[in-house]
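Subgroup meeting minutes
Present: P.N., E.W., G.H.
Scribe: E.W.

1. P.N. recapped why we're keeping a running log of single-chain structure predictions: easier to compare across weeks, and new members can see raw inputs and outputs side by side.
2. G.H. added today's entry (352 aa).
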Amino acid sequence: RGVRAQRLCPPRGAGSSLEPEESSMEPPAVPEEEEEEEEGVVPLSMAPGPVGCQLFGYVGIEAVLDQMKIKTMKTGFEFNVMVVGQSGLGKSTMVNTLFKSKVSRKSSQPGQEERIPKTVQLQSITHVIEEKGVKMKLTVTDTPGFGDQINNENCWDPIIKYINEQYEKYLREEILITRKRKIPDTRVHGCVYFVPPTGHWLRPLDLEFMRRLSKIVNVVPVIAKADTLTLEERAEFKQRIQEDLKTHAISVYPQEDFDQDPEDRALNDRIREKIPFAVVGADQEHQVNGKRVLGRKTKWGIIEVENPAHCEFPLLRDLLIRSHLQDLKDITHNVHYESYRVRRLNESNRPG
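Output recorded in log:
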């Protein structure tokens, strides 16, 4: 049927003491009795070859990375983040600080009273931001009215409904016979939950929200307005929150179950030690030692939001954007959306 191909790589058991043989690119002559393949014999092209085959010269495999970069820069990518917390915790300011632009929802005009919604309302704003030729379609979803009522029973239901609706929308596009070349992705990739800086324990509302939402979305808890706490109070409050999460078996992002290799586990362990991040948001610049910095001016000085000695905002920014943005999207697609897809398809295939 054909001539057997000669392997260009040495077999696994080849020792270094053997004299190297001259390799030829011409296939060797095959005896006539071996021309006919025996039944059950696996062709060499299908047999597993040695790992780490050494190339004779430059092939250009590394150019794949440049191709992927060029394609991504042309098409851009999507990132959807949700911010949840009570009114007055600085959610909009924090989002503006993260992306260094006015990307959050517009607050009420100065002098006008902002009315608290009777129920949780979700407001999404989409922007296209560009940096060094890379375009990102950013969608910020705010949740005004969450935790602001006297009776906050089931106030997380509209949020859970919204997240599942985005999964359902993606699923309907995916199961079409004629699918779009690129399915629009409106799924929530990360949910930043703002914990009030009480300095005590997590409230039942905080525990119940994170317990329910951590099963369907990546939840990143942060301590809002951390400049209202001293460094000792902040460290003690953070330790209490970590104990609460461990006691109630709440797995926030980055989850230990999804660490793929020792390097990821070591990096994520350092992040898990710092969670929840104590953050301070500010979208105004101030002059400090001849430099323009983002910060909040107080009577005793200026709190620099990008200074690790003042707050942990740089850690949150690195987690959401610089180091784990793609991982947030991958876990959303491969874990949270996949579990929703399996559940929905099982429901549709269940006999009536």
